Task: structure prediction
Amino acid sequence: MNAIVAIHPYKTHGMWVFDDLAVGLREEPFVSGADTIIDHMVAGIDGAQNGFTLLFSTNPFPGYQLQLDWQRADLSGNWYRSESIGMEGWLCPALLKYFDAPPPTLYAQFRAKAA
Result:
């Protein structure tokens, strides 16, 4: 398993989604606040709706922009909160495609997709 995971979310039908065929995901949606966090974090990235790169890890890494702390389990997913932006979002069970258990902290970077 990689220490830093890269996915490439994009918007379709008004929703943020991502594909990661290596773990069996296609148009996996971000919902329940996670989509709003993405809107906030990509506001300065031109063309983000057509795709951007999201790096995430359980450890801080150079250039990370957002720390998300686990709050609670709910249904089959988990709620995470960022104190720095005062927002909370739910991450669905697809999180467990990347981690054995919901991490206590996630670190993320949002950047333009390489051409």
User: Anything to note?
Assistant: Residues 34-41 form the longest helix (8 residues). The two ends are 26 Å apart (CA to CA).
